[in-house]
Every structure is written in C-alpha cells, then in structure tokens.
Design goal:
The protein is α+β, with helices and mostly antiparallel strands. It has 16 helices and 19 strands. The strands form four sheets. It has a six-stranded antiparallel sheet, sandwiched between helices. Strands 8-7-12-11-10-9 form a six-stranded antiparallel sheet.
C-alpha cells in the first residue's frame, strides 16, 4: 500500500510538471487525455469541457473517436459525465451495465465497450469547467484511492486549463492591440506606471530610433529630446491626460506633439489603481517650421513698420493740430484727421501683431512672474481703455473684484489679455449703450477673470473657431471686422502658458462672457 502511494505521488508530481509546462490549449488537452488513463491504470480516457453559454458538455479533444461521436453534446445531468458536472462530485461505476445513467450512445457510435468508469469534475474557483473520465480499469475495480488520485489530477488539469485560457486570452488581446497599434499613424507606446515599455508601434520606433538605442523605458526613449513638461512632471501630474511636446535639433529638426494618458483599473470599492500609461505622439515638424517662418516673417515686417509708422504718426499729429488751429479748408482738415486716425489704427495693429508674435513661441519658463493685486490691475486696465482705446465711446464699465485678491503670474501678459477682452467687448458691440462687466472670483483652486458684454452674442457654430489665429466672425454679423483676428488667440496663449485655460459662454442677442482661468 505504501509503495502504491509512493508511486501515485510520483506520478502526480510528474503530471503536475507536464501540465504546467503546456500553455497551448490544444496541446494541453491532448496531454491531459494521454495522462488521465495512466494516473489510475485505465484503458483510455475522455475529456469534456463545459460550454458556459449553452451549459452543455462537449468533446474538445476526442482521441480515436469517430467524427459523429465527437459532435455529441451532453446536457447537465445527462449521462454520468452530465451528472458529475451538475453535482460537482466524482462518480465511480465499476459495472456500467447496471447503471442507467451511463450514456450508451457513445459506445454505440464508436463500437467501444465501456465496462467501468471513474468520472471526476474539473473545478476552478468553485466552478465546474469540465469533466475527465477514466474508462475501464485494467486490473480490478476503481477504488477510493483511484478516486483521490484522479481528483488530484482533475484539479491540476483544471488549473492548467484555466492558465492556458488566460494565456490564450492575453495573447489574443496582445495580438489585437498590436494590430491596432500598427494601424495607428501616430506613435503609440504602452508602458507600466513607472514607464517600462510593454509595446510600441512602428511609428513610435521610427520617431524614437528604437532600432538604434533599444531602450526599455519611455524615459530613456525621451533622453535625446527636449521634453516639455519633463518626464518626471508628467508622471507626477494629477490629471488623467497630460499634453506634452518633445523636440530635437540634430541630426534633423523634429517636433512631436503628444498626450500621456493614464490607464486605470477599478476596484470593487470604486477606487482606481494606475495600471499604466498610453503615450501618443504625432509629427508636427512641418507645422512647427511653418509657424516659425510665419512668426519670423510677421516679426520682421512688424519691426520694419515701426520706424516709418512713428514718423507718419508724428507728422500726422502735427498736421492734425495745425489743421484744427488754423483757418484751413475743410478738405485739408478732413484729410489730416483721416491720416491721423488711420495712422493710430495701423500703429495699434502693428503693436498687436508684435505682441502676438512675442507670446506665440513663449513657454512657462519664459514668464516674468510676480505677485500682484488683481483689483489694481483691473482698474488700471479699465482706465487705460477709457482714455486711450475707447475714448468717446458710451460704455458702462461694471467692475466686481474682491479687494486684496492676489495672484502669482506675468502681470504684463495678464493685463494685455484683459485689455484684449475689454476691447472686443466694446469694439464688436453695436449697441448705443454698451456694457462691459469685468469680474474676478476664486473658484476650483484657481482665479477666474471674466469679461462680459451686452453685444450680439456669437453664433454656436463659431464658438469652436474664435480662438484660432487670424479668425474673425464675418463682418455681416458683427458689423465690424478690424484687426488681425489675433486678440482671442493671444488671450488663449496667455492662459495656456500659465497652465490655465480660456472659455466662452454666449447667447445670441444677449451677449457673451469670456473667462480666463489661471492657477492661483
């Protein structure tokens, strides 16, 4: 008896090693079939798997059985295999002829004579996933020892099948992911939370020179690039999606716009666990080069305009004063006034163009941040608008700013952004009684600076375009299109370079409200 137990133990250890080494499901099931009969000394074995949808047992692997037999399906409770699966209990029958539960059709179709059966359920995590049978004990009858050994074998087989299924599922998901990754034109890299690379598509490998450096971590992949914000700042960021830029000057200029997307899994208590990152980036080199050329060109012509404009406006002012003070003809007075007025407008256009060119290439590290009082800034900007930009206009300025509210930001840029919003509130408002409401409030951990008006509002279809460079709502709607269409693009850039954002709410015939949200 002791010798038999030792042999059974050795057999189960050998079986365990064999089963754990098989990950391909077809190969594994064939191995289970071949080992099952040896474990308990049977002539042959059969294996049924449970179809979870139909709740039927079927032959996944049927060694030596006719095709008709392989197609047979057993409902739960049907035959000894069905009874075993339904009750999740092993069954020993040493004389199947006297047991009505034996399913005769398999013998009839295969021509095989079944004398005795040892049937065990394969259970994983409390669920029956199939049944394994040992058929016809070679010597004597199936015993309780045989049943115990076969149950141990069935348990190992169930674990092996589950592992194989998980492996197959993961392999299939990986295959699908690889197909998706390959079809994405943008570079795509999937990493673990700390940046270790799981998979990267061909575009990413090309951009990051994977074949040359063979990096294993996305941080190492970015080592030859300038990254804004830095890799460490991206990883430490609280947001679910972090925008970033990477650039390289040599051997050839390359600019990539990217998004780092956090991938979470949800626990039963609805808390989130960071499982990894998806890094997506696209080549914007051509776009960046064109923008750079455009900025250089605009900067050049703007500076070239400054000197002759200074002379034109200086002499225009003299002519305007002379025409008003001396008894000159109405034609000369009108001409001098027109030259003087249009010269000032052109000067303002050139100044706004220079302002935008300056900020368009600005990053956060180039800001001149200081702490300042918001109420002082607002009053100062409104007074400037009254005296310089909107002199003579009938505007009711309504200011709501808490005293003592301070912020750490680039004062000059915030002032310019506010001036642009106030100018728009007045310039694009055809009403005889214009209203400009300037308010500041602390909300959601930031400071919201808003400028509202009682103008014509903005059509809903235009809201997605108004912050684009050189874009203006058509003249037939606003009644006036002066300027470059850079004011709101400037405001947006000021907000973004501070780590904030800008948004608008508008209702036709009632007015608009533009809001800059800045981190406090």
């Amino acid at each position: 008896m002791l010798l038999q137990s030792q042999e059974s133990l050795e057999m189960l250890v050998m079986v365990s090693r064999l089963l754990s080494s098989k990950l391909d499901i077809s190969e594994l099931l064939t191995t289970i079939m071949r080992l099952a009969s040896r474990v308990v000394g049977a002539e042959r074995a059969s294996l049924y798997l449970l179809d979870e949808k139909s709740q039927e047992l079927y032959f996944d692997v049927a060694l030596g059985l006719p095709e008709d037999v392989q197609k047979i399906r057993l409902k739960l409770g049907e035959g000894l295999a069905g009874a075993c699966a339904k009750e999740a209990k092993s069954i020993i029958i040493n004389d199947v002829a006297v047991d009505s539960r034996h399913f005769q059709k398999v013998d009839e179709e295969s021509g095989f004579v079944t004398r005795s059966l040892l049937t065990c359920p394969m259970i994983i995590k409390g669920k029956v996933i199939g049944v394994v049978q040992a058929i016809n004990k070679i010597e004597g009858d199936f015993t309780e020892i045989d049943k115990n050994n076969f149950e141990a074998f069935a348990s190992q087989a169930a674990i092996a099948i589950e592992n194989s299924r998980l492996f197959s599922s993961l392999r299939e998901e990986k295959r699908k992911l690889e197909i998706i990754f390959k079809k994405i034109e943008e570079g795509a890299v999937l990493t673990l939370p700390e940046g270790a690379i799981i998979i990267a598509n061909n575009s990413a490998k090309l951009y990051l020179e994977f074949e040359k450096y063979r990096f294993n971590n996305v941080k190492d992949a970015f080592a030859n690039f300038k990254v804004l914000p830095s890799f460490e700042e991206i990883i430490a960021s609280a947001g679910p999606i972090i925008k970033f830029e990477i650039s390289r000057d040599k051997p050839k200029k390359l600019f990539l716009d990217g998004s780092a997307i956090k991938l979470f899994t949800h626990k039963e208590d609805e808390s989130e666990i960071l499982e990894g990152w998806l890094w997506i980036f696209s080549d914007v080199t051509e776009q960046k080069m064109e923008e750079c050329m455009a900025r250089n060109f605009l900067s050049l012509i703007s500076h070239k305009f400054k000197t002759p404009l200074a002379s034109i406006n200086g002499f225009a002012q003299i002519l305007f004063d002379e025409a008003r003070n001396k008894n000159l003809s109405d034609m000369i007075k009108k001409a001098s006034e027109t030259i003087h007025t249009q010269g000032r407008k052109l000067n303002m256009l050139v100044e706004s163009l220079l302002d935008f060119v300056t900020i368009d290439s600005l990053h956060e590290d180039g800001l001149n941040k200081t702490e300042f009082d918001f109420s002082e800034l607002v009053i100062e900007t409104v007074e400037l608008a009254k005296t310089k930009y909107h002199a003579g206009a009938n505007v009711d300025y309504r200011i709501s700013v808490p005293q003592g509210m301070k912020i750490n930001a680039d004062r000059a840029l915030v002032k310019s952004a506010l001036r642009n919003l106030i100018e728009n509130a007045v310039k694009f408002n055809p009403s005889d009684n214009k209203i400009a409401v300037i308010s500041v409030q602390e909300k959601e951990g930031g400071i919201m600076l808003s400028v509202g008006d009682n103008g014509p509002g903005i059509p809903p279809e235009e809201l997605g375009n108004i912050f684009n460079k050189f874009y203006q709502v058509e003249a037939s709607f606003t009644g006036q299109v002066e300027g470059w269409g850079l004011g709101l693009a400037f405001v947006k850039k000021v907000a973004e370079v501070h780590g904030g954002k800008v948004f608008v709410k508008s209702q036709l015939q009632k007015g608009s409200a533009f809001t800059i949200m800045l981190p406090k």
